[in-house]
Amino acid sequence: MLRLMQSVVVSVILASAAPLSAQEYPQLFNVIDVASDDVLNIRQEPSASSDVIDTFAPDATGVEVIMLNNTLRWGLVNHNEGTGWVFMRYMQGQGQPIDHYNMPVGLSCFGTEPFWSLYSEDGIWHYDSLNDPPAELEIDIAQDSGIAQDFRRMVRLTGPDGPATAFIYPAACNDGMSDLAFGLSISLMTGPSAPLLNGCCSLGTK
């Protein structure tokens, strides 16, 4: 069964291999150069003439930009239960801190069918599911690509049911319940005989 799990993960890696360049998005940004009595507009489309659907405060921080449009001037962000676009002139990347276990700080992941979620904290993945009791999966190793700002991770963990494996990789992802968008995907097996779970991941949220 362990050999089967390894084969499944290898297949996922090959199918989702990214170019050997810096994975810049998703990334966390701070709003800059907006007057204290003003706001940064979130627009329905990447255009200054598009409808304003929400706003960010002039001192907003930790805004996750999922991707850029084809002009590289507008960034896709989540708001409420949907997405919108902000003008990147007023956004400054804050960089993504990596913890001592080689995981992005604040990473959280989730999926449906069945509903499950996890967040990474101090070398432990805290896993919850409607179908299973809560579990703590301890990171044995989180292997990266060696490329800065590339959030791909091949993760080996130990949980209550034995060895667990996960692969995090850049890919457009949707939770299937809203119009929110995410830039990271995950495939996860919580044990050697556990089903393969697929879901989305976000930076800086729990």
State the gist of this model.
The chain is mainly β and 206 residues long.
Describe this entry's structure for a reader.
- By secondary structure, the protein is mainly beta.
- The protein is 7% helix and 45% strand.
- The protein has one helix and 15 strands.
- Strands 8-9-10-11-12-13-14-15 form an eight-stranded antiparallel β-barrel. Strands 6-5-4-1-7 form a five-stranded antiparallel sheet, with no helix packed on it.
- The longest helix is centred in the N-terminal third of the chain and has 14 residues.
- The two termini are 32 Å apart.
Helix content: under 10%
* Average pLDDT rating: 88
Judging from the principal axes of the Cα atoms, what is the shape? elongated
Order of helices and strands: HEEEEEEEEEEEEEEE
Assembly form of the protein: single chain
Major β-sheet strand ordering: 8-9-10-11-12-13-14-15
Low-confidence stretches: 1-23
The DSSP helix count reads 1
Query: How much of the polypeptide forms β-strand, as a percent range?
Result: over 45%
> Which secondary-structure class do the elements indicate?
mainly beta
Radius of gyration using CA atoms only: 18 Å
The count of β-strands is 15
Reported for the largest beta sheet, the result is:
8 strands, antiparallel, barrel
Distance between the termini: 32 Å
